[in-house]
Automatic annotation (TrEMBL):
GO CC list: Golgi membrane
GO function term, MF aspect, one: alpha-N-acetylgalactosaminide alpha-2,6-sialyltransferase activity
A single GO BP: ganglioside biosynthetic process
Disulfide bonds: C62-C211
Source species of the chain: Scleropages formosus (Asian bonytongue)
Pfam assignment, any one: Glyco_transf_29
Taxonomic superkingdom: Eukaryota
Membrane topology: Single-pass type II membrane protein
Reaction(s) the record says it catalyses: a ganglioside GM1b (d18:1(4E)) + CMP-N-acetyl-beta-neuraminate = a ganglioside GD1alpha (d18:1(4E)) + CMP + H(+)
Subcellular location: Golgi apparatus membrane
Gene3D superfamilies attached to this UniProt entry: Glycosyl transferase family 29
Protein known as: Alpha-N-acetyl-neuraminyl-2,3-beta-galactosyl-1, 3-N-acetyl-galactosaminide alpha-2,6-sialyltransferase-like
Length: 287
């Protein structure tokens, strides 16, 4: 009888030990989570299964290369490639433009509207340039993760086909944060004012999230287009049938619906630049 009792107690102790062990290993695991809380919860990796990995990079010296025609004939490629980390936007190519824009691409911030282009050229983007990090932003109806977001679904297919590709989505919360920042800076509700944030805006925020020091190349300031003798350059350096950059910016600034407030955004960057380590080159901004 006593032996029976002893066995029960022993069993009880073993069960306790098992629970304790599980608990301790979970704690050790959450030690890992403490580290990942230093990572950036605004950018989540697109992976089959549980999406709980966040962008976890930090760089001292970043180059943010705009897609503006200002980059043409500037010969800044070598200088750009010297940066620790080179950030580009959408599908802005380097091939054929190396002398002006460099040939290194560490990360691309990509609009949901450009994702079909990446898919059409998947060999280039996801095999030849597989070391590049892709961060995609888009509205909820395109990026929702419940199977009803067409762009998210397409990206998930890429993640399954190319498991090594580092694909991230800007989270819904982060996009709301960006809207709040816009509203805070301008006093206008982004949506009610009929505007969409540009890829440039998300890129600037991301750069400030991951870089200590940002050198921005080819971005004009908010008074540039108002000056009589401004340079007429293509809106994008890589588009042949080109639209003048300032005409594009002015049209968008005035658009009642669906416009990007490129010029307003530039005024916001100028305020940030005076507080953080953000520098503008070609043209350079006097802050
Ligand atoms: C990039 O340019 C450097 C020299 O500027 C060269 O050594 C390197 O091979 C180039 N890399 C690619 C991927 O083209
Ligand atoms: C809005 O601006 C105020 C004052 O400048 C600042 O304290 C606050 O953090 C800002 N909020 C956001 C979401 O940027
Ligand atoms: C804006 O850019 C123009 C042309 O590059 C320059 O002349 C002007 O000083 C700049 N303004 C500010 C406030 O940086």
């Amino acid at each position: 009888m006593n032996l029976m009792k002893f066995r029960w107690i022993l069993l009880f102790v073993i069960v306790l030990l098992v629970f304790w062990y599980n608990y301790m290993t979970k704690l050790a695991g959450s030690g890992g989570d403490v580290k990942s809380s230093l990572s950036l919860p605004g950018y989540v990796r697109i992976t089959p299964g549980k999406m709980d990995q966040f962008l976890d990079i930090h760089n001292k010296q970043c180059a943010l290369v705009s897609s503006s025609g200002q980059m043409l004939n500037a010969g800044l490629g070598k200088e750009i490639d010297k940066a620790d980390f080179v950030i580009r936007m959408n599908n802005a190519p380097t091939q054929g433009f190396e002398r002006d824009v460099g040939n290194k691409t560490s990360l691309r911030v990509v609009s949901h509207t450009t994702v079909p282009w990446l898919l059409k050229n998947e060999i280039h983007y996801f095999q030849q340039s597989a070391s590049t990090i892709y961060v995609i932003w888009g509205p909820e109806n395109k990026m929702r993760q419940d199977g009803k977001g067409p762009i998210f679904n397409a990206l998930m297919k890429v993640a399954k086909k190319y498991p090594n590709v580092k694909l991230y989505a800007v989270t819904r919360k982060k996009i709301q944060d960006c809207d709040n920042i816009f509203q805070n800076e301008t006093g206008k509700n982004r949506m009610q004012s009929g505007a969409f944030l540009s890829t440039g805006f998300f890129t600037m925020i991301l750069a400030m999230d991951i870089c200590d020091n940002i050198q921005v190349y080819g971005m004009i300031n908010d008074s540039y287009c108002g000056q009589v003798k401004h340079k007429r350059v293509p809106y994008h350096y890589y588009e042949k049938s080109w639209i003048d950059e300032c005409r594009m910016y002015n049209a968008h600034e005035k658009a009642r619906h669906g416009g990007h407030r490129f010029i307003t955004e530039k005024a916001i960057y100028a305020r940030w630049a005076s507080q953080k380590h953000v520098y503008f080159k070609n043209p350079s901004w006097a802050l």
